[in-house]
Amino acid sequence: MNMLFFIVFLLFAILILRLGVIQIVYGDDAKREIERTDDVTVSTSTPRGLIYDKNLKLLVDNKPRKAITYTPAKTPNQKETLETAEALAKIIKQDTDKITERDKIDFWILKNPKEAEAKITKEEKEKYEGKENESEMYKLQRERVTEEELASLSQEDLEVLAIYREFTSGYALVPQIVKNDNVTKEELAFVSEHLSLLPGVDTTTDWERQYVFKDTLRSILGGITSGLPAENIDYYLSRGYSRNDRVGKSYLELQYEDVLRGQKEKVKNVTRSGNVLETVLLQEGMRGKDLVLTIDIELQQAVDKIIEEALINTKRKGGTGLLDRAFVVMMDPNTGEILSLSGKQYLYNEEKGKYEFTDFAAGNFTTSYVVGSSVKGATVLTGYMTGAIDPYNSTKLDEPLHIKDTPVKSSWFNRYGARYLNDKQALAMSSNVYMFKTAIAIGGGQYRRNQPLGIDKEKAFSEMRNHFGQLGLGVRTGIDLPGEQIGYQGNVETAESGKVLDFSIGQFDTFTPLQLAQYVSTIANGGYRMQPQIVKEIREPGDKDGAIGPLAQAMEPKVLNKVEASKDLVKRVQDGFWDVFNASNGTGAGTFRGKPYQAAGKTGTAETREKGTDVWNLTLVAYAPFKNPEVAISVVVPSAYVDGANDNKVNSIIGDKVLQTYFDLKANRGKEDKNEDNVED
Known about the structure:
Blueprint: H1 2-24, H2 27-35, E1 38-44, E2 51-52, E3 58-70, H3 78-89, H4 101-111, H5 113-117, H6 122-127, H7 134-144, H8 147-151, H9 155-167, E4 176-179, H10 185-193, E5 201-211, H11 218-221, H12 233-238, H13 251-255, H14 257-260, E6 265-272, E7 275-283, E8 290-293, H15 297-315, E9 325-331, E10 338-349, E11 354-359, H16 363-366, H17 376-386, E12 396-398, E13 419-421, H18 423-429, H19 432-442, H20 457-471, H21 498-504, H22 513-524, E14 528-530, E15 535-539, E16 551-554, E17 559-562, H23 567-582, H24 589-592, E18 600-610, E19 613-624, E20 631-642, H25 650-680
Parallel strand pairs: 2-8
Antiparallel strand pairs: 1-6, 2-3, 3-4, 3-5, 6-7, 8-15, 9-10, 9-20, 10-11, 12-13, 14-17, 15-16, 18-19, 19-20
Helix pairs in contact: 3-9, 15-25, 17-19, 17-20, 17-23, 18-23, 19-21, 20-21
């Protein structure tokens, strides 16, 4: 017994000695460790830049909205986080739509630790003992949670889960949005009053993108993500983004992400034991720079309406069962600025049980079609540049072509007999045979009745595609938007020689509506291929009163190339285009002859197949005024009517109304400006 007392005494003596050493020798170090604070710098996102049209009408705004946030501790405690979520759930109403099956399973395990532990057998615990195997045991637990157990989660549990889910989806010391949709004044006030009981929770003002003109140009303006996209997460993280940042995901929002993103606010969080003691502002945030587009939103809306009315009226006619879309591009041929980029689809909405229009402006450069005779201006110019057409002796006999083992190929007017046509007349009357003979000459062949052509198809395709590309056909236009397509190019190796002839009349390769607009602009301005641009200026953020900010960058017009033809040769094509719309035998004269805006251009029809049915695409390229062009347009109406139905000329109807609207709008604005000047005087 004495020995036992001695041992106990000795142990207490050692313990007291050890406590004394810690208290006296290491006491100050321990105190400093307890009182030590860490400085952690974090960045918070700022609102994106605004988007305006060319007349500084606001298109995309940032709509402020009340928000509740949660900032996770540096070393979060799962139990405390859950308790905070339960307390917040009693104050706010949280949407549970985002909850997944996996979320429910994880939450059930968290709420029922004993039942979850019982799902693992003794043998499995021994097998997976050790931290490195905990994930395997947790996997088994998840797999063994039953549907009945998940069904035991009440609505209140689900609301807690929805909040807890947002709490744990953020990153340490970085504020995470918990709720920013439909936050009521009562919720905001109650949370603000009880922040001391809700560690990590705070109230703030968040923002969301507001598209002022709703669906107008919606596909071009693009959208933003709710967090970094998984497929590009490394790219964004390397550029200073946080995982929960919102970034542009399509078109303008994506293309100009670096401009629109703004400068993040940087704060220093002073922490002790993982808890935030103080927040110090290091750098004020700044809203992103603003974009001023080349688009005239008033013109854009008018063109959208013209397309919708034309589609509705045309679909009342026979043979239009497959007609469901139309496109219009309007450009300044001298600068490449896009004034209007309109595309509409007429589709059946299953939810609403009716047909309705949707914006498809992006289809102007992401979809392509066979366009027919609209490209004949490119064929004639190619003939000049390759020597296949002598501009001083350009007459060719338009006659039905009888080529060995090939159906007769002719122009639409050959039923009236053969005739000699020069280059301008061939464009005005849309002669197929003139283009066929030009293509044969480009390929080094020669037409002899009932004989093979003997054409070098590789040479012909190479020459024509090269020269078409100089005008913008079959190549990227260079528009400052992602996702541009160049169209489908037919396989030369497997194509018959006769396909060279089809190419010359726009019946082989496919082209986008934007390519057609660039092509007609190149002809209109005398041979310069201008890069289409949809952003005119970048501006610094404006002031709080809504005034536009100072100019940061102006987008200068860019010439991509000049066609390898003299101005005189381009002028001959221009004159041919004038005759198309204004000569008595021009294919477009019935619609455009005598119009005050004095346009020139080319119509096109192309036979193709859609859903197993032979259909005709209708196209149009035009510019006005003829002598001093200021606007160029392309119109593409795929599947305008089925084979055998009457030509409904919807392409010309749309083109006429679009040009008339442009000049009417210009005249009205001129009157308004004049009236304002008179008032000031």
